[in-house]
TrEMBL record:
Belongs to the phytoene/squalene synthase family. SUPFAM superfamilies: Terpenoid synthases. The keyword Hydrolase does not apply. Its cofactor is ATP. This is Phytoene synthase. Pathway: Carotenoid biosynthesis; phytoene biosynthesis. Gene3D superfamilies: Farnesyl Diphosphate Synthase (1.10.600.10). GO terms for molecular function: geranylgeranyl diphosphate synthase activity; squalene synthase [NAD(P)H] activity. The lineage of its organism: Bacteria, Pseudomonadati, Myxococcota, Polyangia, Nannocystales. InterPro entries: Isoprenoid_synthase_dom_sf, Squ/phyt_synthse, Squalene/phytoene_synthase_CS, Trans_IPPS_bact-type, Trans_IPPS_HH.
């Protein structure tokens, strides 16, 4: 996903809403508790969402958290994915498990007509992570971004209301941009876990063996070839941010500040990475609290920025086309 959650397994049964509250409200409260414990950035950013969206968004992100942990912390990720598939069958059949997250998410997917294809894509992305899949090229990496990030953008857009392909394509762009930024930020952290998300072919083109890079990451401190690779990926992200920002005007007015804030905050991480020379051995790039507050304020008070038609009308990322197509397909809710 576009935000890395704290590395601790979360089980929705550990949380419960106020037993005196109506069932639906109590389930949403439990979802918000999960996010407050494990996803503080989302919990804070959600305050910029219109009130009508906060409950559905909390249910969706809580399910993502539970699903991600179920796969991440399983001794058998394939079995966990199978279990999630059966769980989703029941969610989409309006017979969810007796679990606050499943009940809340079932109301969301049925009430907002979220195609099963989109949620399945997200689960597949978790499975790819568990399988430690490698990404040789940028198109392959964008396939991963489509699943773990762009799928989230599509769901969030559907929760806002728009279902037009052009708008959804821009949501896919923002998801991809944010995930590529995350990848550039987390090169060291990923290598220490034995993972590489930078396109392996890009490293080879610069004379770096990807396997050696991962196992000897500290040997590459200040290496201009690594910096060139990270800068190249940041440029890709820059283009997707421009395309995503062109989609802001396509969203309901009450939703624009939150999405604008997400774009500003994540793209600002790219600025910090560049200030550090695109050196992955430097301190993990982050936006300071003061800077983040300023960006939130900027997103709230400034008008939606103008955009170019070349960005607003750009085609959907190839790897994301099936996500957008799923919205217009008949019987899209069926498992």
């Amino acid at each position: 996903m576009s935000e890395r959650f704290t590395p601790a397994p979360v089980r929705s049964g550990d949380y419960s809403g106020d037993p005196r509250a109506p069932a639906a409200k109590a389930d949403i409260e439990a979802c918000k508790q999960i996010l407050a414990a494990g996803s503080k950035s989302f919990a804070a950013a959600s305050l910029l969402l219109p009130k009508r969206m906060r409950g559905p968004a909390a249910a969706f992100y809580a399910f993502c958290r539970i699903a991600d942990d179920l796969v991440d912390f399983s001794d058998d990720p394939s079995a966990a994915v199978t279990e999630l598939g059966a769980r989703l069958d029941r969610i989409y059949a309006n017979t969810p498990d007796d679990d606050p997250v499943d009940r809340a998410f079932s109301r969301v997917v049925l009430g907002h007509a979220i195609p099963r294809t989109i949620v399945d894509a997200l689960i597949e992305g978790f499975e790819w992570d568990a399988d430690e899949r490698d990404y040789e090229t940028l198109p392959g990496l964008l396939g991963y971004c489509a699943r773990v990030a762009s799928a989230i953008g599509v769901v969030m857009t559907l929760l806002m209301g728009p279902r037009e392909a052009r708008t959804l394509a821009r949501a896919c762009d923002l998801g991809a941009a944010m995930q590529l930024t995350n990848i550039c930020r987390d090169v060291l952290e990923d290598a220490e876990r034995g993972r590489l998300y930078l396109p392996a072919a890009w490293l080879r083109e610069r004379g770096i063996d990807p396997g050696h890079f991962v196992t000897n990451i500290h040997d590459y401190a200040g290496d201009p070839r690594v910096a060139e690779t990270i800068e190249a990926l940041l440029r890709e992200a820059d283009e997707y941010y421009l395309r995503a920002n062109a989609g802001l005007a396509m969203l309901p007015r009450d939703c624009r500040p939150a999405i604008r804030a997400a774009s500003l905050i994540y793209s600002d991480i790219g600025r910090v990475i560049r200030e550090q020379g695109c050196d992955p051995i430097q301190d993990r790039a982050h936006t300071s609290k003061a800077r983040k507050l300023w960006l939130l304020l900027r997103a709230w008070v400034r008008r939606t920025p103008p955009s170019l038609a070349v960005h607003a009308d750009a085609p959907v990322i190839d790897a994301c086309a099936y996500l957008v197509d799923a919205i217009s397909q008949p019987q899209a809710l069926r498992p």
